[in-house]
TrEMBL record:
This is Uncharacterized protein. Keywords: Membrane, Transmembrane, Transmembrane helix. It holds the Pfam family Transport_MerF. The chain crosses the membrane at residues 6-33. The keyword Transmembrane helix applies.
Length: 48
């Protein structure tokens, strides 16, 4: 069981290089979107 988990970790270790930048991107996107809202209503943004 231990050898299987080590093997799985070795095969999936490269996912860190994909998932961490993706996480940072989506956190940045969330912060950008929340700063763009900045308390404005839909009508003030041009949305009816």
């Amino acid at each position: 069981m231990l050898l299987g988990s080590i093997g799985l970790a070795a095969l999936l270790g490269w996912l860190d290089y994909l998932l961490i930048p993706a996480l940072l991107f989506f956190i940045g996107l969330t912060l950008y979107a929340s700063s763009r809202r900045d308390g404005k209503t839909g009508r003030e943004r041009g949305c009816e």
